[in-house]
From TrEMBL:
Biological process annotations from GO: formate metabolic process; respiratory electron transport chain
CDD domains with a match to the protein in the record: fer2 (cd00207), MopB_CT_Fdh-Nap-like (cd00508), MopB_Formate-Dh-H (cd02753)
SUPFAM superfamilies per UniProt: 2Fe-2S ferredoxin-like, 4Fe-4S ferredoxins, ADC-like, Formate dehydrogenase/DMSO reductase, domains 1-3
Source organism, top-level taxon: Bacteria
EC number: 1.17.1.9
Name of the protein: Formate dehydrogenase major subunit
Similarity annotation: In the C-terminal section; belongs to the prokaryotic molybdopterin-containing oxidoreductase family. Belongs to the complex I 75 kDa subunit family.
Keyword annotations from UniProtKB, A to Z: 2Fe-2S, 4Fe-4S, Iron, Iron-sulfur, Metal-binding, Oxidoreductase, Repeat
Molecular functions per Gene Ontology: 2 iron, 2 sulfur cluster binding; 4 iron, 4 sulfur cluster binding; formate dehydrogenase (NAD+) activity; metal ion binding; molybdopterin cofactor binding; NADH dehydrogenase activity
Length: 959
């Protein structure tokens, strides 16, 4: 497959519906009003030379290469900044234009190193291309091999200045090759919204700077790669290109990090990945990227990756490498033995939100058809299961209502319990662009996240609520809207049950829900609540985006319902620019839920007790499916400790590090007789495994992911699996070893089965996805093009349902022993439990988890910045270093959970959401005190982990 070429039209497309006809080089062309002459030319196949222009950014008009002549007008205007007009006649190629362009290019080249043969951009350099396009053959200005940025004479002293900046682990900055086109600066501003780069100096001394004389690593640069992608020369170049060379073919695939689901071109040399380039036609990211998706793919070839199956009798034994046949036969025999001895329900499985839809579907099928029970669960249990419950109850479907493009039409945004710049940076970039255009922002979060205040973005209201009081604050917003008559009566009467609304309205209007009363619980000033409510209700299109700070609470499902109530009351459902939008954490957490990974649901969110649904699968699979819901992950662990649950198949999930109350998880795993882990690395859960099956990366498989906007995107294989098999093949081989007659030859056949059994996927096939690019479910006869916006003419459940949301304080209370509240989250450079990103150069930005603590709380405890501190709760304790900051409020501390040496979940409790058992990660009462270093538990755990990762043969070789 050749390199996929994307046309750069020079300027963004116009959205005008009015059309304009003009003539360019004798060709009559009709385009939307507001289109630049450059874009009109490019769309007609007439290429205009350019260097400073890119369709990812607004027109700039600085390079002077794109000049054109317009009949009847004087001068030569820049085609990128000149809009089309009715009837004008444009010439893009005349003798006069040729002379001017050649002269302009001659000036550029006179101040540029001519090391093209050894330059990393040779063959992929726009400056080189444009020199050829304008016919430049020589330079008259005495080029001497050094340009003004690389060297200058100051009297008798030759001062070398602006050296090459190699500080960033992923790209270099060579100012000697910079033509000061400003594309990198504009990409940083307009595409990413970071504003880290600038042009310093004037005239001949102008140059790009990453800040106040900082290098790229020390600057505010977030390493999204937008500047590198925008650079037309070798000034900003990926180090991988320098080391490997230019790619020779590319494949479009989908990023396997967060739930945004960005499309990338994997650009290859043979089977070696050169770089990941964001695909402009990707409908989730529109050409945007972040540091993880753009650069952090090195884990796929990391030396610690396990490539051979391994087994051991006891978890204290070293691992023994075996063949695939032996590993799978052993696993099948162990599961059959356990079921024979302990009963059919003594085993189960956990699907992965990092694997494809097809792989997840097979795991739940294996549990139901092979093990004969419904003991299957997924990581959504510990993140977004309340989303499924809350939105299902109120709207009738367990997913977000909008596509990401919808943010371009919003007027007021509420962000609650989410940190988009760190957790979903590509969406954050698109949101920040809309905010710079004038949309208003309300942030509800205990921390002062970046979205509260960053360059050119400032929240109208920040509600720094006390952790655990989400329901009270959201209900108080509704109190203001109802008591001040700001609700949308027309929408409610048409789309919802009016009597249910009246009951809910009477409930939220009760005095104890007033902002003044809620201030006493939440710490949020009453006037901030009132101001935010009025803004959301009256500010135009209102959208709500939320994350794990909503769901990971004892009232997670209640908060989701309260958010849905708020959207319905203000009429903000069913059109672009509005809606309720969960920001999913992992790449396929939406898909893993869609595929029937919950113990009570078959694919498509249909309950296992429904006879008609079971009949569909029973006839196809040739088995009888239990009508009783199986065990959730916490129930499996409880049953293991009790002695009735003995075996588990865990695909691509590290429950020991990611699930709450680590000691309880380890006790449950240690009590089992056969723990099977299928993953890339010997993760923390594998410390307790008896069988290890090597996993494959997203680069090594075909399939689909479903992102947070319900978009089904193709994942395409770009290299041979280093372990021998894609994950779906491993599950199939295990099923065959257990006696099941599975014979899929390609994941497309699995998708065909999904489509045949799941109404919301009815029209989805690989051929259809190739044709459409991607689709958003439901995609069926009623919606053959998919459903970008849900609930357009009515709710899926019929009438939208208002539900009372009474605030019930968590059982986790602060007191004299534990006076602080701990909440947890993520950081930009790391992903989830860090198994992938910790094995890339992203560790440069986050070597360890730190405890954020307010200066007042730190001073009271004698803690200085960087000190080791002991973090203790009723569940356990750990140690980590302190980071003193005012981003957290007094009384609140915060940490990430990316490093297993920290084991933050030793601290978290076993309290959980009342409806779904989603753990209450976000509210833990703790105490912080000075410490001398790692705790004894951490020392013991590190030694146990080291012993558990011994591999026979390799262990002796190391000795």
């Amino acid at each position: 497959m050749p390199l996929i070429s994307e046309i750069d039209f020079g300027t963004p497309a116009s959205r005008s519906e009015k059309m304009v006809t003009l003539t360019i080089d004798g060709n009559e062309i009709t385009v939307p009003e507001g289109t630049s002459i450059m874009r009109a030319s490019m769309e007609a196949g007439i290429e205009v030379p350019k260097l400073c222009a890119s369709d990812m950014m607004d027109s700039f008009g600085s390079c002077r290469l794109c000049l054109v002549e317009i009949e009847g007008r004087a001068g030569m205007p820049a085609s990128c900044t000149t809009p089309v007009a009715p009837g004008i006649k444009v010439s893009t190629q005349t003798p006069r234009l040729k002379d001017v362009r050649r002269g302009v290019m001659e000036l550029y080249i006179s101040d540029h190193p001519l090391d093209c043969l050894t330059c990393a951009a040779n063959g992929d350099c726009e400056l080189q291309d444009m020199a050829g396009a304008v016919g430049l053959r020589d330079v008259r200005y005495g080029y001497d091999g050094e340009n003004h940025v690389k060297a200058r004479n100051d009297g008798a002293i030759n001062i070398k200045w602006s050296p090459k900046d190699e500080s960033n682990p992923y790209f270099t900055f060579d100012p000697a090759k910079c033509i000061v086109c400003s594309r990198c600066v504009r990409a940083c501003e307009e595409v990413q919204g970071t504003f880290a780069l600038t042009i310093e100096g004037r005239g001949f001394d102008s140059r790009v700077s990453a800040g106040m004389h900082e290098n790229f690593l020390e600057s505010e640069c977030v390493s999204c790669g937008a500047c590198v992608q925008a650079c037309p020369t070798a000034t900003l170049t990926e180090k991988s290109v320098i080391e490997i060379g230019q790619p020779e073919h590319s494949v479009v695939t989908t990023c396997a990090y967060c739930g945004v689901g960005c499309s990338f071109k994997a650009e290859m040399r043979g089977e070696e990945l050169v770089r990941m380039v964001p695909w402009k036609d990707g409908q989730a990211n529109r050409g945007h990227s972040c540091v993880k998706g753009r650069f952090a793919y090195g884990y796929s070839t990391h030396k610690e990756r396990i490539l051979n199956p391994m087994i051991r009798e006891k978890i204290t034994d070293p691992w023994r490498e075996v063949s695939w046949e032996e590993a799978l036969a052993h696993t099948a025999a162990e599961f059959r033995r356990i079921q024979y001895q302990h009963g059919r329900d003594s085993v189960g499985g956990i699907t992965s939100s990092r694997c494809t839809n097809e792989e997840t579907y097979l795991v739940q099928k294996l549990v139901r058809a092979g093990l004969g029970n419904n003991n299957v669960d997924t990581c959504a249990r510990v993140c977004h299961s309340p989303t499924g419950y809350g939105l299902g109850a109120t709207f009738g479907t367990s997913a977000g209502t909008q596509n990401f493009d919808s943010v371009e039409h919003t007027d007021v945004v509420i962000i609650i319990g989410a940190n988009p710049t760190d957790g979903h940076p590509v969406f954050a970039s698109r949101l920040k662009k809309r905010l710079r255009q004038g949309a208003k922002l309300i942030v509800i979060d205990p921390r002062r996240i970046d979205m509260v205040s960053s360059p050119h973005v400032k929240a109208s209201h920040h509600l720094p609520l006390r952790p655990g009081t989400n329901v009270a604050v959201i209900t108080s917003l509704a109190h203001v809207i109802v008591t001040e008559g700001l609700y949308d009566e027309k929408f409610i009467r048409e789309r919802c049950d009016w009597s249910e609304f009246e009951d809910w309205a009477a409930f939220v209007a009760e005095p104890h829900h007033s902002p003044e009363e809620v201030e006493k619980l939440s710490g949020v000033p009453a006037e901030e609540i009132r101001g935010a409510a009025r803004l959301f209700a009256t500010g135009g299109n209102g959208s709500i985006y939320y994350g794990l700070g909503v769901t990971e609470h004892s009232q997670g499902s209640t908060t989701v319902m309260a958010i849905a109530n708020l959207a319905m009351a203000t009429g903000n459902i069913g059109r672009p620019g509005v809606g309720v939008n969960p920001l999913r954490g992992q790449n396929n957490v939406q898909g893993s839920c869609d595929m029937g990974s919950f113990p009570h649901e078959l694919p498509g969110y249909r309950h296992v007790s429904d006879d008609a649904t079971r009949d569909i699968f029973e006839k196809l699979w040739g088995v009888t499916i239990s009508n009783e819901p199986g065990l959730r992950i916490p129930n499996m662990l409880d049953a293991a400790v009790d002695g009735s649950f003995k075996g588990i198949y865990i695909q691509g999930e590290d429950i020991l590090q990611s699930d709450p109350d680590t000691k309880h998880v380890s006790a449950g795993l240690a009590a089992m007789e056969c723990v099977v882990v299928q993953d890339l690395f010997l993760n923390e859960t594998a410390n307790y495994a008896h069988v290890f099956l090597p996993g494959s990366t997203f680069l090594e498989k075909d399939g689909t992911f479903t992102n947070a906007e319900r978009r089904i995107n193709r994942v395409r294989k770009v290299m041979t699996p280093r372990n021998g098999y894609a994950d779906w093949e491993v599950t199939q081989k295990l099923a065959q070893a257990m006696g099941l007659n599975w014979n899929y030859s390609h994941p497309s056949q699995i998708m065909d089965e999904i489509a045949a059994t799941t109404p919301s996927f009815a029209m989805v096939s690989y051929d259809y996805l190739e044709k459409m690019g991607s689709v958003q479910w439901p995609c069926n006869e009623k919606a053959p093009l998919g459903s970008p916006i849900m609930h357009v003419n009515g709710f899926v459940r019929g009438k939208g349902k208002f539900i009372r949301t009474e605030y019930v304080a968590t059982d986790e209370k602060t007191g004299p022993r534990f006076p602080l509240l701990l909440t947890t989250g993520r950081i930009l450079s790391q992903y989830n439990v860090g198994a992938q990103t910790r094995r890339t150069d992203n560790v440069v930005w986050h070597e360890e988890d730190r405890l954020e603590i307010h200066p007042n709380d730190a001073e009271m405890r004698g803690v200085r910045d960087g000190d080791w501190v002991k973090l203790m709760s009723r569940s356990g304790d750990t140690t980590l270093r302190a980071l003193i900051t005012e981003r957290v409020a007094p009384g609140v501390v915060y940490t990430t959970f990316h490093h297993p040496t920290t084991q933050a979940n030793v601290i978290t409790t076993d309290f959980s959401d009342w409806a779904t058992n989603c753990p209450e990660y976000k509210v833990t009462a703790v105490q912080v005190s000075p410490s001398n270093g790692p705790s004894q538990w951490q020392v013991d755990y590190d030694e146990q982990a080291r012993q558990s990762r011994r591999i026979a043969g390799k262990m002796e070789a190391a000795e």
